[in-house]
Design a protein that fits this description.
Two copies of one chain form a homodimer. Chain A has 433 residues and is α/β, with parallel strands linked by helices. Helix content of chain A is 45%, strand content 16%. In chain A, α6 links the parallel β5 and β6. Chains A, B: Its EC number is 1.1.1.23.
């Protein structure tokens, strides 16, 4: 196999900021044709309900569905899917589900209020979403871990009804995905996918109930549909390619770091894996490990393409500079393979998740450590957060003015409303004086 | 003046669900021409920076700016704006700012972590956004209260730098808006507006720094620009027309309720004000109050159009049914003008803010009660929340596995990764066994 080519950058170079921007640049080009197709599908599902959903499902998924009732899987089929998988997989799913649930319990936000001296009560009331839709891709890229990560926080939040949609191309379905849905407590499952599934969840059909929010990953049709129904329902983020940034002091086994980079790169050709170290010789050692290990990998070609087109090795003058680069990148996954990761992590302001210390491989977090693997990509960790229980809860402000409180507040409101020429506001407040 | 015509519905009627959907329907039609203009402005600002911003500002705001430095207002001009306004307005702004700040302090989310038996540490770290942009409309519809409501939660969150943009058409600026910016602690102000201001905040120019998130209301150009830069930066919600739903048991002075409906309707012709009561005679009394009071209102024509095209009176069989209708509407503002509002509010699951009791006019909440007046519109209270401190904070997951923890977790991760055919994930975990 030819040696791998990986971009090498030096953070001390004056050209570095521009080079880093080029490395990170990711523009999902808007495909107007897909946009138009998805708009048509949504309009059709809104107009024709089940009939449209069945037609698209038969056409795109090569199925022969006659009635909408056939689209739903009952709880028994989930239970028997769980019963059918090997014991080690069933136990691993159970361990993961329990740990994800324990962590999620810490994220619940609670209602609060306080009473002022004059008896006025102010607060915020927290309620779960009534009904949530979870999109799960079908076919090859069927990930049971993704079912657990999306469904469990919703159930912990107290969502009344969690509806999963998963396409069943040619009638085939991954039993691990159904087993995960069983463990996570999914309430109903419909075997539909694509833009038609998103439209059905957003607007409802005779058979598929409308939800308040749609979460979960999907292909470009699903992502476009989610963008287009946003407003009618809430959505989670539209994810870009997955990324890892590893900062290493040069003292971790280079094979370990090479494999951590691979674990990101194997997702797809556009995944991005970057390694930063102050130790140039160490970067060379990791490169050697990559060349040694790559031929042994099942997805060697995907890994090679990802690392050579989007990967990078960055030399820094010290770990402080590494932290600065990390804050610029705001990576989805940040591995701190350094001696004192707790102290070092204080310098990190922007990252989806931080994997601290030489033993914390990102893969542990992807499956079973507990925190969510749905994380902000494409530098959006600058302003957004991992998926969590809080994404399935919402807040309502509470204001209960006492007679005395209304009198005091009314004077202030009246002055400000008149300053904004909103006289009905002013008079409404003045009535309570 | 002619009697006002207001839609009257009866929740007991079998046609009611469909009638209610028609009443609430609000489709912001996508204007492709505006979309294209805004795309061009964004591309121009990305390419030409300050030069483009100056050109658009001179053209759209009828100004003669020569250098980008002229676009910035220094802190002294804010301070002197505050000094220039009448004492009663200065005091009202101060009271409002203090109350908004006190309430916001209750919303701060805090970091947490926990240590497992084998020494593995899991947690979530909370950090404020580095830099936030606040859009403030200029000209006539300049609302100082909106500056306080958007800026104060950001400052309470600990945002490093808060950048306000406000257009200054023909060089004119509302001193109340600048005074509010001074009180709220805005760090820098640029007198630019429109799509060019949003583009400058999203991508940065030589003079205007790039931010992580843009909040604040604006016209259709601003809203379109915010949608188009989303992903590059975070944004708050794109607001629809403002709405109020009032539930009254029939025992509140009908003039008060009429004026509360007016206070929503005076915002604009598309604003929506709805009154629900089990007491038909009371609804007639409020209608009488509306007809009596309307001729005395400064914005009578806007109010009349809003109430007659989008307003409604709904008769229900009892307050329980009123709560059900409210949950279907999921209103931005919900006034519970009833005898025991605390008990009744337990039945409300979806609302942006609840104003409880006869003394709590919505106007008090709009200005100075404390809770934010930026609230989810168009039924989005089903899945989203008032603007708050939490919108200016973000979370990072923390995972620090002990050697023993990595050994246990590694086994589970390995089984699940192999189940998903992600072999690099599996081997990365297995290295730590």
């Amino acid at each position: 196999m030819p040696e791998i080519m990986i971009t090498e950058l030096d953070a001390v170079s004056p050209d570095f900021p521009g080079q880093l921007q080029n490395l990170l640049a990711w523009n999902e080009s808007e495909d107007l044709d897909i946009h138009r197709q998805v708009l048509d599908i949504i309009a059709d599902v809104r107009r024709n309900g089940d009939k449209a959903v069945i037609a698209y499902t038969n056409r795109f998924d090569h199925r022969q569905v006659n009635s909408a009732a056939e689209l739903e899987l009952d709880q028994n089929s989930l239970k028997s899917a769980f019963g059918s998988i090997p014991t080690d997989q069933a136990n691993a799913l159970k361990t993961a589900a329990n740990r994800i649930r324990s962590y999620a319990e810490h994220q619940k936000i609670e209602s609060w209020d306080y009473t002022e001296a004059d008896g006025t009560v102010l607060g915020q009331k927290i309620t779960p979403l009534d009904r949530v839709g979870l999109y799960v891709p079908g076919g090859k890229a069927a990930y049971p871990s993704s079912v657990l990560m999306n469904a469990i926080p919703a159930k912990v939040a107290g969502v009344g009804e969690l509806i999963m949609v998963v396409p069943m191309p040619k009638g085939e379905c991954n039993p691990l995905v159904l087993a995960a849905a069983y463990l996570a407590g999914v309430d109903r499952i419909f075997t539909v996918g694509g833009a038609q599934a998103v439209a059905a969840l957003a607007y409802g059909t005779e058979t598929i109930p409308a939800v308040a929010k749609i979460v979960g990953p999907g292909n470009i049709y699903v992502a476009t549909a989610k963008k287009l129904v946003f407003g009618q329902v809430g959505i989670d983020m539209i994810a870009g390619p997955s990324e890892i940034l590893i900062i290493c002091d040069g003292l971790t086994n280079p094979d370990w770091i090479a494999m951590d980079l691979f674990s990101q790169a194997e997702h797809d050709e556009n995944a991005q894996a970057i390694l930063i170290s102050p130790d140039k010789a160490y970067l060379a050692a990791v490169k050697q490990s990559i060349n040694n290990l790559l031929p042994t990998m099942e997805r060697a070609e995907i890994i090679r393409t990802s690392l050579s087109t989007r990967g990078a090795f960055i030399t820094v003058k010290d770990l402080q500079q590494a932290a600065e680069v990390a804050n610029t990148i705001a990576p989805e996954h940040l591995e701190l393979s350094v001696e004192n990761p707790e102290a070092f992590s204080q310098h990190i302001h922007h990252a989806g998740a931080i994997f601290m210390g030489r033993y914390t491989a990102e893969a542990l977090g992807d499956y079973c450590a507990g925190p969510n693997h749905v994380l902000p990509t494409s530098s959006s960790a600058r302003y957004s957060s991992p998926l969590g229980v809080y994404d399935f809860q919402k807040r309502t402000s509470l204001i209960n003015c006492s007679k005395a409180g209304a009198k005091e507040l009314g004077k202030t409101a009246s002055v400000l409303a008149r300053g904004e020429s909103l006289f009905a506001h002013a008079r409404s407040a003045e009535y309570r004086l």
